[in-house]
Amino acid sequence: MNPQDYILQLRNELREHNHNYYVLDNPTISDYEFDVKLKELQDLEVKHPELYDENSPTQRVGGGITKKFHTVHHRYRMYSLDNSYSKEDLLDWETRIHKILDSDDISYTCELKYDGASINITYTDGKLVRAVTRGDGFEGDDVTTNIKTIKSVPLQLQGDYPQDFDIRGEIMLPIDGFNKMNEIRIANGEDPYMNPRNTASGSLKLQDSTETASRPLECYLYSFKVKDFGNAKINTQFESLQFAKTYGFKVPNHAKKVNSIDEIIAYAEHWETARHTLPYEIDGVVIKVNDLFQQEELGYTAKAPRWAIAYKFKAEQVSTVLESISYQVGRTGAITPVANLVPVLLAGTTVKRASLHNADQIQKLDIRINDYVYVEKGGEIIPKIVGVDVSKRDVNSCVTIYASHCPECNTELIRNEGDAKHYCPNEFGCAPQVVGRIQHYISRKALDIEGLGGETVALLYKEGLVTTYADLYDLTIDQIIPLERMAEKSAQNLIEGVAASKKTPFEKVLFGLGIRFVGATVAKKLAKHYKSVWALANATQEELEQVDEIGVRIAESVVAFFVDVKNLQVLERLNEAGVQLEINEEAQQLTSTVLEGKSFLFTGKLTQFTRDEAKDMVEQHGGKTISGISKKLDYLVVGEKAGSKLKKAEALGTVTILTETEFLELIG
Ligand code: AMP
Ligand code: ZN
Hints:
This protein is an alpha+beta fold and 668 residues long. It has 25 helices and 20 strands. The chain folds into 6 domains: 3-44, Helix Hairpins (Orthogonal Bundle), CATH 1.10.287; 83-312, DNA ligase/mRNA capping enzyme (D-amino Acid Aminotransferase, Chain A, domain 1); 315-425, CATH 2.40.50.140; 431-503, Orthogonal Bundle (DNA polymerase, domain 1); 506-577, Orthogonal Bundle (DNA polymerase, domain 1), CATH 1.10.150.20; 599-666, BRCT domain (Rossmann fold, 3-Layer(aba) Sandwich). The chain is 37% helix and 18% strand.
């Protein structure tokens, strides 16, 4: 056999053994035989570099180094899930679904809610091309190199797979594997990892993929994003899971198709206790409307699909002693009380600290030093204290008196009416606030300055080189080189990173300014509405409250920010430095304005484009989409099997009804 054929044969064989071992749990050769074949393939590939294949089984051992994880825009947004915590919540959801769909023929797929790190993997022509973390749902990090080392992720598909699709799943660290990793760490004198979920998600962001390859990670797949399933006639979520298996994906067998709310509740109740028999952690179950066309009809809210809901299990609790309370100062000056606990095991991990939220919480629960407290782990990384075992309280214990002064700068704390938190008002003189603001400014979702990290910011501050983010733009290379752990190259990178940040779009800069309550999403909204920081600075409280989804709290905080002359001076300097303080109109330009002032609604099964694409097209031509039939609706675009919406629109008589083709003609 010529080397090329032999290499291909070896690759196929190894692929199959991999699948048998890691996906089917049914190996047909010994580990030793496998290693021998793998070594043989590695040697041949070294001898024949011209036959390199980035999806060869040899790539699984890692070796690739990722210096910086590139941001990738998801072609289909990765939504969150709405949560429910009781039977009543589930009932409400089911009633809502029936009402919207106007149908009694609805089935559901019940699945486990895997507690790991979500991943979106793209396959084209059967080959893994890219794997991206969820990130903020719109864009995530390209972690392909690391994902390829996870043995249950197929690099090459088998069977009759769709030509081009995304598949989503959860990267998991089974409990056994996690415990083994910790035993080794403890033996080496290292701190054990907190919990399997964080370690799984941390594993995806390791720079050295050999390290990722060495961790016993698994990937469980649960949903497709695809335009065209190709030859497979897939109409339901449940079928899609069965097909995923035939392509080589690892899909656990616990999904169940059901037809009633009673069965949904029975499934949830069963797994609430049976979860402990699983070799990995789940934090609930997920219920999905089974029919994919019904899913499309139900669509999404701003955050989550209407066609799915998570049912979250009750959190686990333990009791331990509260040793002391410390106070942390955040970048906005907000004070967070933190409980220092006698270490205790909770849901498989050791807990030493817990959040106490704020003064009210401490007062309400009457939490005192030396109390036995109940600690609970919710979705957050840091557990929280939910109660006190008063029967065990020491007779001499005293009521907790909340801190009156900032632990960092000793300024007297303030608490505004209606605010749950205390604040240190020393905005420009309190180290964690000053440093925290700059760290926020350079962070990933903000200006994302390459070559500059949080620790360096702290160092620059300590050396008196920066006190505001505007100071970053005045740094010179000579100032930086003498600093600890800096060399000419790293100093150069820092300066270049700062210079490059001037191109960051306005919405991210606005987020980076660190205005209280203005998170990334709100910043996007405000940037779109006001188009420049100067317009925003001139907006009154009332005007701001008129903007979609902006409430009193945000409006107040925005106004307070721009009233402060110190902030205005900093903005002036950012402006002089050339930072983007307004929207770049060119990037925003619409394709046309033919639909200006017109509203659209899409119904039925669309065959020429998806609902998301439809919405984009409408917006690109200046129109908007709305969610229900009313006098405000101008156009209803109907796909196949349109139902009650079409009838309503016809009855109204004011709505123009279009086919998909007519819609496309309308926008040219
Ligand atoms: P949350 O992070 O609470 O908004 O929940 C949404 C996340 O649940 C998704 O991003 C997934 O990573 C995760 N998840 C785990 N299991 C499933 C499942 N079977 N179906 C959908 N999402 C799941
Ligand atoms: Zn302070």
